[in-house]
Amino acid sequence: MKQFLKFTLATIVGIIITSLIGLLIFFGIVGAFAASSEKKVKTSPNSVYELELKGNLIERSKDDPFSSVFASSMGQSAVKTIGLDDVLANIKKAKNDDNILGIYLNGGMLSGGFASLKEIRDALEDFKTSGKFIVAYADMYSQKNYYLASVADKIYLNPIGMVELQGIAANSAFIKNTLDKLGVEMQVVKVGTFKSAVEPYIQTKMSDANKEQVNVFVSSIWNNMLSAISKSRNISTEQLNQLADENVTFMTPEAILGHKLVDSLTYADGMKDVIKKMAKQKESKDVKYLSHSKMNNVAVSEKMRKEKIAVIYGVGGIDMPERDGIVSEDLVKTIQKVKDEKTVKAVVLRINSGGGSAYGSEQIWHAIEQLKKEKPVIVSMGDYAASGGYYIACDADTILAQPNTLTGSIGIFGLIPNIDGLNKKIGLTYDGVKTNKLSDAITYNRAFTPEERNLMQNSINRGYELFTKRCADGRSMQIDSLKAIAEGRVWTGEDAKRLGLVDELGGLNDAITIAAKKAGLEKYSLKSYPEKEDFMTTLLKEFSGDAEVKFLKKSIGNENYQILKQIEEAKSMNGIYALMPMSFTFN
Question: For 201-205, which contacts have Cβ atoms below 8 Å and span 24 or more sequence positions?
Fold first, then answer.
């Protein structure tokens, strides 16, 4: 027995030591991989930047080295992500590099927001002023990607390919019936006729007011897209609308070509000859292709300047259950750090958020107010800067949005679940004592009393008054004028400019230019905050629950995942929120 225990202990120790050595080797390989990925790339003459339009477009790139490993282990294919920041930087590099002759937009299934794709399209338009070419090819173009690809000098399509052009539909999932079956009632108090973020919890369809606002902003986005396509392809918007009514998606490639939506039909391998001619080279092998990842590592010749413009990113829900959203406490610390950084002379706050906690929004607003006393603050809005997202933007010196940014939604609500019905279903009862009349006020276990609802409504009203005052003061508007366009209504950037909620239409680069001008800077460096996660931090996160989320999305589909996410949020939401009207799925 003694000998057995001796050998058993030795075996266990051996396993532990082997495991530790294995881990050290593993992390050594990982470290070497990370180091090699940072190797700088030099461009060669006759190069073409090949931008693969596939996967998900996110605001900032991040290292995701093992997504393919996790996906494979779960029997799934990896979902590629591309950072908007990298795409914009690479297009600028390609424009200024004499070795790069053009850009090849390869593929047509990049998933991203309307404003983010416009940001890329605008950068490509600017690229064309250099006299270099842009060419696009895809087996299938999604509607958003066709809008993006239409900027190209020539568009090519697979001979059996498809182009989606059918207009925009906005749909939202309503979970009231689901909650009813569970015995959960969502108790709502709000301010704002158009503040419809609560509708999925208490209704089975959109209210008339919500339908009105959604119809307005969806039409605005669609018309903006059509106008851009029309100008690039020399096809009238009337004709494009007629084609959309017929649903181009189901037309033959020959019909698509006949309507001049594309320039030619070819297979993927035929693009080498096309690009060879556009690059004015004798042989296809003379053209050197630079992938997006290689372009990321192309060195920028610009000299690093001591004086900097800080770009602070605020992306995602504010203090919401999502993992990658805005944590108000962290963002406030970042803003304070930038305020104290002597070399930072101006700040661009890049917002892509549908809002969230009213308390968190107020904390961020206060930090911006303090920052503005020291340095110019310019806001650049992405796909969304609505409700709490607008709250944290309203005090900036200058606000920019894309025409198809969704913003406004100046309203507030409180959401408290009542699980009395669920308690009855499972036979759960409560009893207790209290020292005062309202000691047990606003509880999950029963419905509001009239007095409790009145108290909650008064609290929401005060929050709305503060929100509208912040916006009116920030925009130098009379409070009554501000309230007339508030009421929780969502506006596009185009309408927001007309109404005075936004100063200029433009993207991140335009915001940086304005920041430099306000700070009196001709030469400067850019620095992004918060700093991107390093390789090892990302790796450790991959071993956490993020992999589960990716697996769940792939298993049940993103649309169904969003429904589950809504239910999860309903479980955890407690208090006062400044959120977008509802979560929409755009085709």
Answer: 201/175, 201/176, 201/415, 201/570, 202/176, 203/174, 203/176, 204/174, 204/176, 204/177, 205/174
Distance between CA atoms of residues 384 and 409, nearest Å? 10
CB 163 within 8 A of CB 137: no
The catalytic site residues sit at 195, 387
Task: Tell me how many degrees the CA angle 444-446-450 measures, rounded to the nearest 5.
Answer: 110
Please choose, from the candidates 357, 339, 341, the residue with its C-alpha nearest in 3D space to the C-alpha of residue 349.
339
Domains and CATH numbers, the chain: 47-166+247-296 (3.90.226.10), 308-414+475-586 (3.90.226.10)
Residue 153 has a pLDDT of 98
**How high does pLDDT run on average in the chain?**
87
Within 8 A by CB and 6+ apart from 145, the residues are 53, 107, 108, 109, 110, 117, 138
Whether the pLDDT of residue 122 is over 90: the answer is yes
How many Å apart are CA 328 and CA 350, to the nearest integer? 15
DSSP string, 260-285: TSSSEE--GGGHHHHHHHHTT-SSGG
CA atoms 543, 548, 554, 558: torsion sign: negative
Instruction: Write the single-letter amino acid at 376.
Output: P
Tell me, what's the pLDDT at 402? 98
Q: Where are the alpha helices (DSSP H) in 324-442?
A: 328-340, 358-372, 388-391, 420-426
pLDDT digits (tens, 9 = 90+) for 352-387: 999 999 999 999 999 999 999 999 999 999 999 999
Q: State how far the Cα of 310 lies from the Cα of 306, in Å rounded to an integer.
A: 12
Residue 39: strand, helix, or coil: coil
Is the CB of residue 195 less than 8 Å from the CB of residue 210?
no
Distance of CA 70 to the CA centre of its chain: 23
The answer for residues whose C-beta is within 8 angstroms of residue 543's C-beta and 6 or more apart is: none
Answer positive or negative: Cα dihedral of 206, 212, 218, 219.
positive
At residue 408, what are phi and psi to the nearest 5 degrees? 80, -125
* Short-list 406, 383, 386, CA closest to 580: 386
List alpha helices for 402-534, DSSP H.
420-426, 450-474, 479-484, 493-499, 508-519
Helix (H) or strand (E) holding 400: strand 398-401
What's the token pair of residue 348? 């661009």
The pTM of this model reads: 0.85
- Whole-number pLDDT of residue 569: 55
